[in-house]
Structure formats: structure tokens, C-alpha cells
Amino acid sequence: MKNILYAILAVMTCASCTKSFNIQGTSNISALDGRMLYLKAINNGEMKKIDSCEVVHGQFKFSGSTDSTSMATIYMDDESVMPLVIEEGNISIQLNNTKQSCSGTDLNDRLFEFIEKYNSLQSRYSDLAHQENQAIMDGADMDSVYLALTAAAEEIAVEQDKLITGFICDNFDNVLGPGVFMMVTAGYEYPALTPWIEDIMSKASDAFKNDAYVKEYISAAQRNQNISNGMEMPAEPPLQNVPVQQVAPPTPSDLAKPE
């Protein structure tokens, strides 16, 4: 009898260590119906499939178990649709023509609040081009217009810098800090120690510095800098970045358009 009790307790203990996640998604984009979506995350430096599903009548879902919180990406074929955090709990996703949202768990709420603010700043950038075109059509003094637009662009750039830096610093000790750092630096042709990155690293916690991606990026950037300064001989071409999802990926409607 004791052996049976011990076996039951062992099973219950193992079960309690397993965390489950459930992702329920909805979409009002008819072109997505019948398409396959894939949930992927980086594992040992490679993007691995965690789950897949078909969009049926605007509904899709992923589920599984996880022993740790991690950044992931939803893909349609080989195209990145949106980032999210795999963590214990029920996660709700909405995809429409103009907006993506993911909510229901703490880190996903934080991530998409950040993405919404980032996209708002990107919209303001886009509006500057519209203002320029309108000024040309109106026959305005373009020297004055360009001065105003340049000042506006610089203001937005400062806001973006504060937003991204502040978010990473506020999330040094969870997956969001390294995750957004990865999204931003993935846009660089080569790992480089820019003033922005040096500022981030001067404030970083040990947990952030020891993140696998951050650690590898900083090591490669330092090596590239040493080569550039003549302090190290290149044994091979400068280390390049592996493309990953961006902060503002294409909208699902863009991805659903036929080739």
C-alpha cells in the first residue's frame, strides 16, 4: 500500500511541475481561413516548432506544456506573423486588418502594450511623409517644411529610444528584456557595440547579461569591434545576425495576400 501511495504522490508531484498554456485565437481576415499557423520558439540557437493549427472559420488554437517562460513567434508558412510569450495560463489572440493583440497573461499584456506604443510612434513617422507630400501639393516653402519635419522626426526618434530602452531595462530579469533586445538588434547587418547598446549593458542585470542571445551578441560585437580597431585578426568574415521577428512584423492581411 505504501508503495502505491508513494507512486501516486510522485505522479502528482511531477504533474504539479508541468505548466500548461492554452492559446485561443480569432481573426476576421477571411483570407486566413484554411491557412496553417505554426508556433515556434528558439531552442539551442534554432527555431523549433512547438505546435501548429489550421485557421477554421476565423478560429485557431495552440496548446502545450512548458517548464519555463519563453519568447515565441507565430508563423504562417515561413513568414513571421507576431511575437508572443509562452507562459502558464490562458492566452487570447486577435488578428485583424489593422491590429494584432495578445492578452491574458502578465508578460503578454506588457509586451503588447509596448508594441502598441511602438507602432503608434511608427505611424507618426509615416505621417511625416504624408505631410511632406501635402506641403508640396500646397506649394509651401519647402525649406521651412523640411526644418519642421526634421525636428519632428528627431523628436519621435528620442521618444522611440526612451520607449525601447525603458522597456528593456524594466524587464532585464524576465524574457521580455532579452526578447525585445533581440528584435531590435536583429535589424543590424552585423553585431555592433553602438552607444545605445553600451548604455543598455552599463545598466544591465546579471540575468540579462547572461541570457544566451545577449551574451553571444555582445561577444560577437566585441570581436567585430576589435577587428575593426586592428586589435584582432579576422579568421572569417564579420559575424552576421540571424534574422528573427521584428517588433512590428507585417500584418496578417499583408501575409494573406496571394503571391
- Secondary-structure-based class equals alpha+beta
Instruction: Report strand order across the widest sheet.
Output: 4-1-7-8
Query: How big a fraction of the residues is strand?
Result: 15-25%
Helix fraction by DSSP (H/I, runs of at least 4): 40-55%
Distance between the termini: 65 Å
- Secondary-structure element order, N to C: HEEEEEEEEHHHHHHH
Number of strands: 8
List its traits:
259 residues; alpha+beta; 4-stranded mixed beta sheet; 4-stranded antiparallel beta sheet; 23% strand; globular; disordered C terminus
Task: Give an overview in words.
This protein has 259 residues and is of the alpha+beta class. 47% of the residues lie in helices and 23% in strands. The chain has helices at residues 2-17, 106-138, 142-170, 176-185, 195-203, 206-209, 212-228, 252-256, and strands at 19-27, 36-43, 46-54, 59-66, 70-76, 79-86, 89-95, 100-103. The protein has a four-stranded mixed β-sheet. A four-stranded antiparallel β-sheet has the order 3-2-5-6. Helix 3 (142-170) runs antiparallel to helix 4 (176-185). The chain is globular.
Please give the structural blueprint.
Elements lengths: L1 H16 L1 E9 L8 E8 L2 E9 L4 E8 L3 E7 L2 E8 L2 E7 L4 E4 L2 H33 L3 H29 L5 H10 L9 H9 L2 H4 L2 H17 L23 H5 L3
Helix pairs in contact: 2-3, 3-4
TL;DR?
By secondary structure, the protein is of the alpha+beta class. It contains eight helices and eight strands. Residues 4-16 and 242-259 have low confidence and may be disordered.
